[in-house]
């Protein structure tokens, strides 16, 4: 087959794949990599030592690679194992501009934690690092519904300054909504953690399968328990302003292969 014809077929395949996230091979984005016809058994894909989600759509297998926000514009190499065959695929990485954002937090301690807060923060980071690395067998449904109504108030990737101090970039998407507004699961999954965190406030973690994990923060109320199965659209809690927050909103993080990616790439309408 001619190269042009193959490229056209691949492009068509991606377009027909309505359930997949948007193919956006940029820092903070998702590369949707065609692995061939789904008539063969599901291949395994990995980037470094991280397993990747492999989902079927439109009769083909696709690997979903979450690209870190700090990735350089150089190709990433993924390894694909099908039966006894292992091959490498180079995924080109483009560039994307993320603007700055300056916020004022009234509770100074949430920006410059007191010495007694640091032990708690460290404990929480170790706990969530384990959760984020999970890779469960279930095939995820990457066609997400919106978890909250309301305007998108802060986009993913903003380079942030709190009270003038540089902090980590914004690793999720914010919805402006009043305290008590419902927060819903964007797709089916299993609740793998609920709790109150120093920065993130009341939080819920949902494992959708194969390293696709979503997190809901600053909640005023949590309506689900650890280990609970949730359906697409099921209420999991309510919007709030707990933790480090300028006001009531939902912060939504989406992880793929332990990498926070822009949740907007998963939002389509059914
Ligand atoms: Zn946020």
From TrEMBL:
Domain Peptidase family M23 N-terminal: start-end pairs: 23-84
GO molecular function, one term: metalloendopeptidase activity
Database matches in CDD domains: M23_peptidase (cd12797)
Gene3D superfamilies attached to this UniProt entry: Glucose Permease (Domain IIA) (2.70.70.10), Peptidoglycan hydrolase domains (2.60.40.1590)
Lineage per the UniProt record: Bacteria, Pseudomonadati, Pseudomonadota, Betaproteobacteria, Rhodocyclales
Keywords from the UniProt entry: Hydrolase, Signal
Domain M23ase beta-sheet core stretches: 169-263
Keyword presence, Oxidoreductase: no
Annotated protein name in UniProt: Murein DD-endopeptidase MepM/ murein hydrolase activator NlpD
PANTHER family: M23 FAMILY METALLOPEPTIDASE, PEPTIDASE-RELATED
Signal peptide positions (record): 1-19
InterPro entries given in the database record: Cell_wall_metabolism_enzyme, Dup_hybrid_motif, M23ase_b-sheet_dom, Peptidase_M23_N
Keyword field contains Signal: yes
